[in-house]
Amino acid sequence: MQAIGDWFQRLYDTTGLNFSVFYDAYDWGRYLGGLKMTLLLSVTTILLSLIVGAIGALMQGSPSALLRLPVNAFVVVFRNTPPLVQLFFFYFGLGTMLPAVEAAGMRVPLLSNVQWAIISLSLFAGAFNVEIFRSGIEAVPRTTLEAAEALGYTRLKAYIHIVLPLAIRVCLPALNNNLVNLLKTTTLAYAIAVPETLYAVKQIWSESQNVFEMMVVLLATYGILVGILVWMMHRWERAMHIPGYAR
Amino acid sequence: MATSWTPDQPIVQCVDVRKSFGALEVLKGISLSVRKGEVICIIGPSGSGKSTLIRCINALQPITSGSIQIEGIEVTDPRLDKLALRRKVGMVFQQYNLFPHRTALQNVMMAPIHVLGQKRAEVEARARALLAKVRLAGKEDTYPGELSGGQQQRVAIARSLAMRPDIMLFDEVTAALDPETVKEVLVTIRELAEDGMTCILVTHEMNFAREVADHVYFTDRGVIVEHGPPDVLFTAAKDERTQRFLSQVL
């Protein structure tokens, strides 16, 4: 580790390229903190958006209009408005209307900016996931469902054992895209001062005057994070491959 | 709901069954009865309502009026326990409709485990025996997409049998098969019939119908034109429509 720090220190001394995060412990700490926050945002919003998508798609396929209507309204609202505006709406709009609570002798908002970012981004990506799951569910042949029905499966049991496993395989490529977008969209949390990677890196370049170098670090960071996500999704896709199933 | 059914009564009893899709009446008063262990073939031109009829028998489609009783269970009862009905009635489709994400063995095991809650080990032993019975021993771990049409159809038959039904419905099960694989499926069905399974077949295989059926029904435009033992119906049909149909297909 020391060698890497020394190398970047020398790079700065000889060329003026200041990658302060790699030799300055304080900058490194801030960068690492930002990275952890980005990972927290990404993992929780991906999981929550998948749950929103699965429940939404099940409700959307229901015979009852009472269940279908709210889902359709939700999808329209969250798909037709910009995610940054949604984030502001939740944090500045709803956030200020909620009562404050007592914590450690201080009056603090009921939900923190991190929690609002998670809620807002999960709903945003979840709306897209509803539509993605629906496309997969609609690709399951009606006759396959009929066979399940003739074997005594109820709607819910058929959904769990037959429809979802087939639907998820059909919609994985689209889901893949949406989750990649979601990971990148977590940078919007910057706008409500969530200390994620973009926020941390911006603080570093303001103080160390190394905008170009930190921009490179920032782009590389997201490039690698998305690379890891895509690799995991492809592994999942391969694990779910069905021999001889030509869809 | 009549529950006092005894095996000497018809196992399937349809009385004046009518079924409309919008303004189109597909079944115009069908009555037939099947005794336990009997093999019934329903033949007739395309669009005569054959498939609709057997889909109505296991309540995949509701009928407009009339009565269908399976072992005394009234299928048209709004409080019908569909699970109870489907335990008694197995169905095999033209397009096999196997679950593509599960192996042949898993396809056979799924419903008894998920629907009837039976023990995995016991179901697996039964499923292996059923696959052997339809001559697919060795194909247990193969996925449907890797099997030929005839093999898939035999898995579908084993899958239905795993639920231990009293009646099997076959909806044009050889219509989508290559000519050379038709035979292997028909052999399987004939063995079932010989074992005493009550079978209702919608089929275009006239020679097969003639050979295995106890009774043949000829339908045209939503009515049963005539019915009788195959020897009589195929050689001495009384109705002119039956004669014309038979002369075209035989």
Automatic annotation (TrEMBL), chain B:
Keywords, sorted A to Z: ATP-binding, Nucleotide-binding, Transport
Looking at the record's lineage, which domain of life comes first?
Bacteria
Does ATP-binding show up as a keyword for this record?
A: yes
Q: Where is the ABC transporter domain?
A: 12-246
State any single GO MF term: ATP hydrolysis activity
Keyword NAD belongs to the record: no
Q: Cite the Pfam families for this sequence.
A: ABC_tran
Task: Give the coiled coil ranges.
Answer: none
Q: Which InterPro entries does this entry report, sorted A to Z?
A: AAA+_ATPase, ABC_ATPase_HisP-typ, ABC_transporter-like_ATP-bd, ABC_transporter-like_CS, MetN_ABC_transporter-like, P-loop_NTPase
Family as reported in the entry's similarity comment: Belongs to the ABC transporter superfamily.
Q: What does this protein do?
A: Involved in beta-(1-->2)glucan export. Transmembrane domains (TMD) form a pore in the inner membrane and the ATP-binding domain (NBD) is responsible for energy generation.
Protein name stated in the entry? Amino acid ABC transporter ATP-binding protein (PAAT family)
Instruction: Look up and give the organism this protein is from.
Output: Bradyrhizobium stylosanthis
